[in-house]
Specification:
Elements (H helix, E strand, L loop, with lengths): L21 H15 L6 E5 L14 E4 L5 H11 L4 E7 H6 L1 H10 L3 E7 L2 E2 L5 E2 L23 H7 L4 E6 L5 H10 L4 E6 L6 H5 L3 H10 L5 E5 L5 H10 L22 E9 L4 H14 L3 E7 L8 E9 L13 E4 L2 H6 L1 H6 L5 E5 L10 E6 L10 H12 L5 H9 L5 H10 L4 E2 L4
Parallel strand pairs: 1-2, 1-3, 3-4, 4-8, 7-8, 10-13, 13-14, 14-15
Antiparallel strand pairs: 5-6, 7-9, 10-12, 11-12, 15-16
Helix pairs in contact: 1-6, 10-14, 13-15, 14-15
């Protein structure tokens, strides 16, 4: 079944100022996506701050909205994690300035993402201040007597640093969807610099319209169209080739093949809460890997403070029979709370639990206020370090509740090369862990 639009009609119309070019760019992007007929579940649109940052919600694809100038960084991580995704960055000229370092390094690496620059020559959302692309002599909120800096040539900047596809166009160009299509198809870093009008600030301050925009391109020797193509190995592929070599190449170096059955119907969400140094994230990863080996879909989301060796450490895990579309957990089915820091960080979630939910908690942390069934865990006298408590709890619960075979968790522990023996021993020792099921 063909897709006739990637736009979400429920989110329309666009909120942009009358005459702003942002809506035209989004329409042209939609036209390119329709021609490409990409699986929307395998498309990720990444935005940062600014008027262009409002754009991701209009598309029926995956999306992430982050900090100003950092969208290319997020996109790089996404592409490295899953090279099969089509990753498109929507950012303004402000983001090119604030995130110039990321722009240059993405070009150097030739990471396989497409960047569409909404270039309206100023910071439109915050009052019309000058940006790195503001034209010489232009009046802005911060250069009222005329801008003194030479405008940044975004296209030349990424070209000289190694990008494999560069183009420049305007919102008046009817061929823009063709350029977007070629940029997305390129196997490597692509950038399209799209000149447009900011009717709220730049246009009235400079008596600037289509004629002046086109003249400015000519005056600055900024050519339009596809400016550069250079075949290069895309970075995420080059990285995997370096790790595996040609003979061992695969699209997913960490692929786990299911070889066990699972006993979950529907989905199960759980939260594991502890402290730094308790290897909460590692235990959750093993739990997820074991579930994958049992044929389940999984997600894991970690939460810890900037000072990673102090404070809380929390992992949110979802196991499901079906593909998981959202990683958010509003209310978990199971909770494991192992330390004071974990308890303090999750009190609101504990309070949201219902009588159908189960809270496994270090007995020393009781009492707590919750409607859930509370099951204390006795760690005293075990002789095991706190860093193995989380995996012991998970193993103990799996001994009593059929989620998936314990042997799958053992196989996952064997993947932890540095601590495999300790984790396997902790899983074995979990049989002696005392859980007060009578509470």
């Amino acid at each position: 079944m063909s897709i006739d639009s990637y736009l979400d009609d429920a989110q329309l119309p666009y909120p942009f100022c009358p005459g702003c070019g942002h809506g035209k760019i989004l329409d042209d992007l939609n036209a390119a996506l329709v021609r490409l007929q990409l699986d929307p579940h395998k498309v990720v649109i990444v935005t940062d701050i600014g008027c262009s940052g409002l754009s991701d919600k209009f598309f029926k694809t995956n999306a992430i909205h982050g900090l100003h100038g950092r969208s290319i960084t997020y996109a790089t991580g996404i592409k490295l994690t899953n090279p099969q995704l089509t990753v498109i960055v929507l950012m303004g000229d402000g983001g090119c300035g604030i995130g110039g370092h990321h722009l240059i390094n993405a070009a150097r690496r030739n990471i396989g993402v497409t960047v569409l620059v909404f270039n309206n020559l100023n910071y439109g959302m915050t009052g019309g201040e000058h940006s790195v692309t503001t034209l010489l002599g232009a009046k802005t909120a911060t250069t009222w007597y005329g801008h003194l800096e030479r405008p940044m040539d975004v296209c030349s900047t990424v070209k000289v640093n190694g990008t494999s596809f560069v183009a420049r166009t305007t919102t008046f160009d009817k061929g823009a969807p063709d350029i977007f299509l070629e940029a997305i198809r390129n196997d490597g870093f692509s950038l399209v610099d799209i000149w447009e009008l900011c009717t709220a600030h730049y246009v009235p301050n400079n008596r600037f319209g289509k004629k002046e925009l086109l003249a400015a391109l000519s005056k600055n020797n900024f050519s339009t169209g596809i400016l550069h193509r250079e075949p290069r190995v895309e970075y995420s592929r080059a990285y995997r080739l370096a790790v595996q070599g040609e003979d061992g190449w695969s699209e997913d170096v960490t692929k786990l093949e299911p070889r066990y059955e699972h006993f979950i119907s529907g989905s199960l969400s759980c939260i594991i809460a502890g402290s730094a140094g308790m290897k909460i994230g590692s235990a959750a990863t093993m739990f997820c890997q074991g579930a994958i080996l049992a044929g389940l879909w999984v997600t894991q989301k970690n939460n810890y403070p900037v000072m990673v060796k102090s404070g809380h450490s929390i992992s949110e895990v979802i196991l499901s029979q079906e593909q998981i579309r959202s990683t958010g957990i509003s209310k978990p089915d199971l909770m494991f709370v192992l330390s004071v820091e974990g308890l303090e960080k999750t009190r609101s979630q504990i309070a949201s639990l219902t009588e159908e939910d189960v809270l496994f908690i270090n007995a020393r942390l009781l009492p707590v206020t919750t409607f859930a069934r509370v099951i204390p865990i006795m760690f005293d006298g075990l002789g095991w370090k706190k860093e193995f408590w989380a995996v012991m709890c998970l193993a103990k619960v799996m001994r009593q509740v059929n989620l998936y075979p314990l042997e799958a968790l053992r196989d996952a522990a064997r993947l932890r090369s540095n601590y495999a023996e300790e984790y396997l021993a902790a899983i074995a020792a979990s049989e002696g862990l005392i859980i007060d099921v009578g509470t």
